[in-house]
């Protein structure tokens, strides 16, 4: 409803902010000056001992110098009571003795009918509660006792029983002079298709009242006592009071508990919520027999920015979680998401609590995974990615899901997380040593350094195939590790590096998965994934340690120039290498003039490289960027030059 002009201003004027806040805090008598309306207290929004929360009663505003919370009386009630705007206004209006504005006649008529229906529902609650104490409910009482529900829990949740009678509730309400239209309108009975008297909606069932956030009884859930009943659980039909897709079981109490700092837990059914609340997890809710809707998701986020979805540990529970991901991805915002706590296979929260107690459940809740991890699990679990096509299909599926996210910042972070997970899945496998696996399934470095010193001296001697490329790769990787701010500038070139050395490939994967990290964070990430020896051994190699940007880390411009130059040389060497291979293949047949010209051009390039070898070697020895062409390539070119000189092109 809309409020008339000036209503809120008058409400704020007539409401004393210090009185509203005073119900939630203890004022610091030494700092506060009540006469001037200058009040101080420990902040109710974050844990602290000092009085950094300030209320200016005359201006009607509060501000915390610790957590920076600020607002007026309405926002304070909204935050501390965990209610919506209009509910906060109604609370303050009642306290200030101000009547709420009148609704228009049609809206008032609807409100009056909802009030009447709510009154009928309360009568039904009392009827079902009385029936639970009758002889007909003995089996129901035994069932509830086996499920661990004692008398105090039955009272707390107002659990009742609907006898297996066609008009038990109907006759009871008619004796109370309740009109037929209200009984039918509340969903408590259904008209007979045979023209007879309407019959009760719930028969032979344990009854769970469903209340809205304001505490009004709006519907019932019934569990069948007959094991052959087609519907084990049955909810009230939708009415003027009850919209199944916009309601949550235990909404009001859970909102209050979440407002006091408890984590909001979303379970699947009534018994799970009752068990959770009885075990101390009072901020627990459940959807009503259907998958979570967008409206319910928005309701959850109004209660808590990051609800924990605690689903049953079976295939149905997992499928429900996977469906929820697709619903939530377009709606996530900064600080607004979901986490998923999957119960052990075949158990629900109630089962786990009865078997192992609250600590076991708390452990699972603490380990709840973020939504991006469950998305990754959905797209990869049980699948084999042993071909480029399958890997491409995975990339496409994940890209399509990530593009559903509207917030560009969150979309970017999801992409980075997926890239990190992808690298872990497809990282090069070691043949010499088996990797150690940590408790979380994360790869850990072998006992010896990921990049051994013996290999370092091997590279320095420039012996073995592709030695020069490895020298350049080592310089590039070391530069990026010490100055990760430049990684993004060269992401494409880094991905294209051949990295024949698995240590280099592993380090490259970590660097690419750490876009946006600073130098300290990158070092921690490398240590965490590859072990502390990996980076230490790389930086200690002589041809790396003497590079200027390694000696003086943090110079982004110098690091950028070093990486650009080394990548360019790698690309040039790759082009020469391709020319050698192609020419060598063509030499197996009869050469023509075009082949001879190509070989001559390649030979001239090789000769130029040969002339610079000694100069480059001197640069390397004095700490510059290494040689330009390997000894193997030079030997190959020598052989090709000799072949050219001995070969005459045909006409």
UniProtKB/TrEMBL annotation:
Residues in CHC2-type zinc fingers run: 43-67
Q: Which reaction does it catalyse?
A: ssDNA + n NTP = ssDNA/pppN(pN)n-1 hybrid + (n-1) diphosphate
Per the record, its GO cellular-component terms are: cytoplasm; DNA-directed RNA polymerase complex; primosome complex
Q: Which cofactor does it need?
A: Zn(2+)
- The UniProt record lists the keyword Iron: no
Cofactor annotation remark: Binds 1 zinc ion per monomer.
Could you say which EC number(s) this protein's record lists? 2.7.7.101
Annotated Toprim domain residues: 262-343
* Keywords attached to this entry: DNA replication, DNA-binding, DNA-directed RNA polymerase, Magnesium, Metal-binding, Nucleotidyltransferase, Primosome, Transcription, Transferase, Zinc, Zinc-finger
Entries under Pfam families matching the protein: DNAG_N, Toprim_2, Zn_ribbon_DnaG
The terms under GO molecular function for this entry are: DNA binding; DNA-directed RNA polymerase activity; zinc ion binding
SUPFAM superfamilies found in the cross-reference section: DNA primase core, Zinc beta-ribbon
- Into which EC class is this enzyme placed? transferase
Which InterPro entries does the UniProt record give? DNA_primase_core_N_sf (IPR037068), DNA_primase_DnaG (IPR006295), DNA_primase_Znf_CHC2 (IPR036977), DnaG_bac (IPR030846), DNAG_N (IPR013264), DnaG_primase (IPR050219), TOPRIM_DnaG_bac (IPR034151), TOPRIM_dom (IPR006171)
GO BP term, pick one: DNA replication, synthesis of primer
Q: Please give the PROSITE patterns that the UniProt record associates with this protein.
A: TOPRIM (PS50880)
User: What role does it play?
Assistant: RNA polymerase that catalyzes the synthesis of short RNA molecules used as primers for DNA polymerase during DNA replication.
Subunit annotation = Monomer. Interacts with DnaB.
Swiss-Prot/TrEMBL domain comment = Contains an N-terminal zinc-binding domain, a central core domain that contains the primase activity, and a C-terminal DnaB-binding domain.
The similarity comment for this entry is:
Belongs to the DnaG primase family.
* This protein's name: DNA primase
Q: Which organism is it from?
A: Roseobacter ponti
Species lineage: Bacteria, Pseudomonadati, Pseudomonadota, Alphaproteobacteria, Rhodobacterales
User: Gene encoding this polypeptide?
Assistant: dnaG
């Amino acid at each position: 409803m809309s409020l008339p002009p000036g209503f809120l201003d008058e409400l704020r004027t007539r409401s004393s902010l210090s009185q509203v806040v005073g119900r939630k805090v203890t004022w610091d008598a030494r700092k506060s000056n009540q006469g001037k309306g200058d009040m101080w207290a420990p902040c109710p929004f974050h844990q602290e001992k000092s009085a950094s929360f300030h209320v200016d009663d005359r201006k009607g505003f509060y501000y915390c110098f610790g957590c920076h919370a600020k607002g007026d009386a309405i926002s304070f009630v909204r935050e501390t009571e965990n209610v919506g705007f209009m509910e906060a206004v109604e609370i303050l209006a009642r306290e200030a003795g101000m009547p709420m504005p009148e609704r228009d006649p049609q809206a008032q008529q609807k409100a009056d009918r909802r009030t009447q229906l709510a009154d009928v529902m309360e009568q039904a609650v009392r009827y079902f509660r009385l029936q639970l104490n009758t002889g007909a409910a003995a089996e129901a009482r035994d069932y509830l006792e086996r499920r661990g529900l004692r008398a105090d829990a039955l009272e707390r949740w107002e659990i009742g029983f609907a006898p297996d009678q066609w008009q038990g509730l109907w006759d009871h309400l008619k004796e109370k002079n309740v009109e037929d239209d209200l009984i039918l309108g509340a969903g408590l009975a259904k008209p007979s298709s045979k023209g007879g008297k309407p019959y009760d909606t719930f028969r032979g069932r344990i009854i769970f009242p469903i209340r809205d956030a304001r505490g009004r009884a709006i519907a019932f859930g019934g569990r069948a006592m007959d094991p052959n009943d087609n519907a084990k659980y049955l909810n009230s039909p939708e009415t003027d009071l009850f919209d199944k897709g916009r309601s949550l079981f235990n909404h009001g109490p859970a909102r209050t508990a979440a407002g006091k700092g408890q984590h909001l837990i979303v379970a699947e059914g009534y018994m799970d919520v009752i068990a959770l609340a009885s075990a101390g997890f009072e901020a627990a809710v459940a959807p009503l027999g259907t998958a979570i809707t967008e409206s319910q998701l928005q309701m959850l986020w109004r209660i808590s920015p990051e609800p924990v979805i605690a689903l049953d540990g079976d295939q149905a529970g997992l499928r429900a979680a996977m469906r929820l991901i697709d619903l939530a991805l377009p709606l996530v915002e900064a600080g607004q998401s979901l986490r998923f706590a999957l119960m052990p296979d075949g158990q629900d929260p109630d089962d786990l609590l009865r078997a192992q107690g609250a600590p076991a459940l708390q452990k699972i809740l603490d380990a709840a995974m973020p939504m991006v991890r469950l998305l990754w699990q959905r797209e990869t679990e049980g699948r084999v990615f042993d071909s480029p096509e399958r890997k491409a299909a995975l990339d496409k599926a994940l890209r399509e899901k990530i593009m559903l996210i509207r917030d560009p910042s969150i979309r970017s972070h999801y992409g980075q997380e997926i890239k990190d997970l992808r690298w872990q899945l497809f990282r090069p496998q070691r043949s010499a040593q088996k990797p150690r696996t940590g408790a979380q399934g994360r790869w850990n470095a072998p006992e010896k350094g990921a990049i051994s010193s013996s290999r370092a001296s091997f590279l320095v001697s420039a012996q073995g195939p592709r030695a020069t490329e490895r020298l350049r790769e080592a310089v590039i990787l070391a530069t990026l590790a010490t100055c990760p701010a430049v990684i993004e500038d060269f992401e494409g070139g880094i991905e294209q590096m051949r990295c024949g050395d698995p240590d280099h490939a592993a380090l490259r994967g970590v660097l690419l998965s750490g876009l946006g990290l600073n130098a300290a964070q990158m070092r921690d990430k490398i240590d965490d994934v590859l072990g502390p020896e990996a980076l230490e051994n790389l930086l200690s190699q002589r041809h790396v340690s003497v590079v200027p940007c390694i000696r003086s880390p943090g110079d982004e411009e110098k690091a950028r120039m070093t990486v650009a130059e080394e990548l360019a040389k790698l690309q040039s060497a790759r082009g020469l290498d391709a020319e050698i291979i192609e020419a060598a293949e063509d030499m197996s047949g009869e050469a023509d003039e075009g082949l001879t010209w190509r070989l001559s051009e390649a030979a001239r390039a090789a000769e130029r490289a040969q002339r610079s070898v000694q100069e480059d070697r001197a640069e390397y020895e004095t700490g510059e960027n290494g040689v330009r062409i390997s000894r193997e390539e030079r030997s190959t070119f020598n052989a090709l030059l000799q072949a050219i000189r001995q070969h005459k092109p045909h006409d």
